[in-house]
Amino acid sequence: MFIDGSNLYFKLKSLEIPNLSKFDYRGLVSWLAKNKEVVYAGYYIGVVRAKLGDEHSQKLRRGQRNLFNFLQSEKQGFSLRKGYLMKNDGVFHEKGVDVQIAVDILVGAYEDRYDTAIVLSSDTDLIPAMKKAKAIGKQVIYVGFSHQPSLALQTCANLSRLLLKEDLDNFII
User: Fold this and answer.
1) Which of 26, 89, 110, 133 has most Cβ atoms within 10 angstroms of its Cβ?
2) CA–CA distance, 38 with 115 (Å, rounded to integer)
3) pTM of this prediction?
4) Nearest-CA neighbor of 127 among 163, 101, 93, 94?
5) For residue 92, what pLDDT band results from cuts at 50, 70 and 90?
6) What are the domain boundaries of the chain?
């Protein structure tokens, strides 16, 4: 399971899912995997840098740290893969996250670590890695959101699952 954390966060926020630092991410992964064994659950995200004296950035950093601790708890059991955030013209952009997801999809495929890659992201930068994993015989499932699906990722994957708000309500702790 490969989760683009920033993508998931903003999609859940847009659906008004409360308290995202206590959402049952592992429950969602198990539900998406159906009866398959989950051999890897990766959560990929850009890290907030808190500036000294900037209370807003300090608050964001504390919230993210709480989320990281929760995701890495024994109950959730995620591997956390961190990129960074870069500010450009007043807007923050994640850097290094998509590359890490793509590399892990490819390494896992080539080293035969999985049969099926479940990719929760709407980032089309992942298409080449997904296509290559498919080309060497792996199943690739795209998981998106019914209110904002990625047609390009749907087309690329063997199978697509579009989540409804009602599906996600089951994982609110």
Assistant:
1) 133
2) 10
3) 0.91
4) 101
5) low
6) 2-169
Residue 167, pLDDT > 80, answer yes
Kindly state the tokens that stand for 51. 């500036």
Model confidence at 96, pLDDT cuts 50, 70, 90, reads confident
Name the CATH architecture for the domain at 2-169: 3-Layer(aba) Sandwich (3.40)
CA distance 161 to 84: 28
Residue holding tokens 């890290």?
A: 47
- Give DSSP secondary structure letters for the chain: -EEEHHHHHHHHHHTT-S-GGGB-HHHHHHHHHTTS-----EEEEEEPPPPTT-HHHHHHHHHHHHHHHHHTSTTT-PEEEEEEEEEETTEEEEESHHHHHHHHHHHHHHTT--SEEEEE---GGGHHHHHHHHHTT-EEEEEEETTS--HHHHHHSSEEEEE-HHHHHTTB-
